Amino acid sequence: MSARLVPRSQCSACLRPLSACICRWATPTAHVVEVLVLQHPLEVHQAKGSARLLNLSLAHCRLVVGEAFAAPIWPVDGKHTMLLYPDSLQDTVLDLRLPPPLPPEWPQAPSRLRLVVLDGTWRKSRKMLYQSPPLQQLPRLTLRNLPPSHYRVRKAHRPDQLSTLEATCYALGQLEGGTARFLPLLNAFDGFVEYLEQAGGQRNTQTDKSCPRPRVAGRI
């Protein structure tokens, strides 16, 4: 008779095994702009993902899993909804309609704003946009003059590519008039990244005993 597999205990908040719980880095952060994170299904169980930590830290944040959205999933409540995504002429190559411009008066009333964020790799997020006509119709918020990403545990193809948590914090800071209130969350994210680096180093040394234990880089 084969032994029965005992399921690992799971944290009810971050939905990860208790041995890999990330709730210690959850940092309650006041904000005004509503956040809607659309998470690609392949990111749900991605240990290096930052969307769950973001969701745990922001009071006005909702996380929805999906790859294609045929109809808007945000309520009709009078709020102005925008998409956090580069506004690029490359959309024409993908047969996407160019988004409408962001009305200049929208940022003047942050409490009436809703920010939609795509959580996935660069390729997956572009596919989500391509398969979701309602997202293509949203004005876009583009981030500029960004600091280097602290997300050292996942490969970026461009210097301006950030983690979902970092991009959202900088976007909220841009819309709400400053990033100071989001610095504690960004600092907590540094701790989360260090933990991932340590965990990765431990797995590497267990796999290859001949390799020296790598030194964990300090925070940027």
Q: What does this protein structure show overall?
A:
- This protein has 220 residues and is an alpha/beta fold.
- It has 5 helices and 5 strands.
- It has helices at 51-57, 122-130, 133-136, 164-176, 183-207; strands at residues 34-39, 61-65, 80-84, 113-119, 140-141.
- It has a 5-stranded parallel sheet with strand order 2-1-4-3-5, covered by helices on one side.
- The longest helix is centred in the last third of the chain and has 25 residues, at 183-207.
- Residues 204-220 have low confidence and may be disordered.
Summarize, please.
The chain has 220 residues and is an alpha/beta fold. Helices cover 26% and strands 11% of the residues.
Primary descriptors:
5 helices; alpha/beta; 220 residues; disordered C terminus; 11% strand; five-stranded parallel sheet; 5 strands
Task: Describe how the helices and strands are arranged.
Elements: E1 34-39, H1 51-57, E2 61-65, E3 80-84, E4 113-119, H2 122-130, H3 133-136, E5 140-141, H4 164-176, H5 183-207
Parallel strand pairs: 1-2, 1-4, 3-4, 3-5
